[in-house]
Design goal:
mainly alpha, extended
């Protein structure tokens, strides 16, 4: 009987405290609701096309200095490599580690573990911070 009552009373206690004290918790957004439909930022590139965006920490992957709207990255297609994997395109070639597989073997093409570029590389826009921030890069 104790095994049945303990989880039951534990659940009741958690629910009670959540209801009683839930009004004290606020998101960083304040009282604003998240809109049901939101639209991504459009035409907010703040660097000229092709500009190198400075890194703010030692091991930060390079930022994407151009719009990527409409570019596909899937298991069958990677539009990034249409420029970044081509000699003479003017786009920076992926770093040598991107050609090394998980066993440490260097290959001729991008390793599968580095194929999805936007897992690490992100674009950057000049957007107002949501909260005050005093961070200064390197």
């Amino acid at each position: 009987m104790k095994k049945i009552l303990f989880p039951f009373f534990g659940t009741i206690t958690v629910c009670f405290f959540s209801l009683a004290h839930g009004e004290d918790v606020q998101s960083l957004r304040g009282g604003l609701d998240i809109p049901a439909e939101s639209t991504p930022a459009v035409d907010m590139d703040w660097q000229p096309p092709g500009a190198v965006v400075p890194r703010t920490s030692a091991h930060q992957p390079p930022l994407i200095a151009h719009a990527i709207t409409g570019m596909a990255i899937s298991t069958k297609r990677n539009d990034c490599l249409g420029c970044h994997g081509v000699e003479g395109s003017g786009a920076p070639k992926p770093f040598q580690t991107h050609y090394t597989d998980r066993d440490g073997k260097k290959g001729e093409s991008i390793s599968q573990r580095w194929y999805f570029c936007t897992q690490c590389h992100v674009g950057q826009v000049d957007a107002k911070p949501l909260v005050e921030n005093t961070f200064e890069g390197k």
